Write the structure tokens for this entry.
Amino acid sequence: MTSVLKTIAAALLAATAFCAHANAETVLRLDESPVGELDPAKASDYADSILMFNLYDTLVIPKQGQPGYDPFLAASFESADGKTYTFKLRTDVKFQSGHPLTADDVVFSFDRMMKLGQGLSYLFENVEKAAAIDASTVKFTLKTVYAPFISALTRLPIVDKALVLQNLAEGEGDMKDWGQAYLSTHTAGTGAYTVVSHNPQEETVMAKNADYFLKVPAVAPDTVRLRYGLEAATVRTLIAQGEHEISSQWLPPEVLKSLAADGAQLLTEKGTTEFYIKLNTTKPPFDDLECRLAVTYAFDYESGVKMVAVSDQVSQGSPATGALPVGMLGALGGEPLKRDVEKAKEHLAKCKYKPEDMKVELTWIGEVPLEERFALLMQANFAEIGIQAEVRKLPWALFSEQVSKPENTPNISQVFVNTMSGDPDTLLYSMYHSSAAGTWMSPEYLKDAEVDALLEKGRTTLDEAERAKVYEAANKRLIALAPSIFAQDQTAVFAASNKVSVPALSDPAKAFALAGFGFNFRLMEMKQ
């Protein structure tokens, strides 16, 4: 009898342990740069985007594994003329507050973003108004035809109007602060995850939204801890100890290589970002086209790619063919850009400035240590053709301030730029249209009537095949003008524990052509 009771007790204990294990909470820990903007109308960088894509939803989302966009909060949409767009909303969506999604929420979200004028509001400058036709129909009227409009909507998160109005703080007008104080620490979305706590300098903790309209799979992480500003050495140690699941994309290749050797998987995101070396076209020596062409031929593209290689199969960069990442609408096929020292010397000989008289300031962003390697590579490359360059580390805040005036902008600066909406317009127009000059994206201060005309045409051409031709022409013109060295297409590489599966970052057939969208936590799988 005693042995039977012991057997039963052991079985019950085993069953209890199994159930406890099966029901154990899964926690995903990852990190990004030290920025964490929770207000979706202010979101602009990678960390902000991860928060926005998980806490909020949009009318449309990028197709998975292919170009184009699918309805999401919208059940359908249509446009007869390219100037008006009508969206029918899903009727099964509720905000995390329990309030139903209506057309008024969409209109309010648009009006709020434009009133605040921050983040990516510039994507909607061509929109004249948004109006609720009825509770489930919203209509956008554009000032002119704007081909990238649907893609831009991936960056218009829909907020809960009623909840925001209940939480207005001091400010001018009827809308006071438009809920900025509240949305800096709380969420008001329909997203698959909700905020548990938020410290923009340390971490944001999120949990599954049990009432999400698409249902969050049981295998998706229950809790997510997005940490900010961790040092590479710290991340390396945490992953090795099983206390961190996904690194940021900013780890040095040596650290990624070491983690991979220890058994970590490497996740990748490509086709959305390019690394640009910016040349100030307003002051010597790069106000001279021949001098710009000289340095574009002097740069060692191949060594640049090898410099960020993690393994024989994975690198943080791949050869560029021009101003747009390979695979994007308007990208050029054929041979990648290559170094040609003889051509560099030929162009330098035609430059109105003598190499010995040049004083080139070559800067790199202090928060992105990888850029120092490229600065030193350029310094060596330019020295081979007689151009001396002084390398200088520049904090991001100071760089952003300096580029607002051409006379303060360095001769050479470096930035990684991703397409905010998946459309080439959000790369090229914001960098090379003459009206865009003076931001961190456009320290070149390029002014070229042909480029302006092509970029404007790209915005008003609705046929995709024709748009591709327009951007190919703009691409070729930019190569000829050389306002930048198109150093390489960036591949974001993340080291990850084998406890997490991220199909959107490991299977090209499931990838999204929108930076950061692969970090939809509801699409991930966690192992116990």
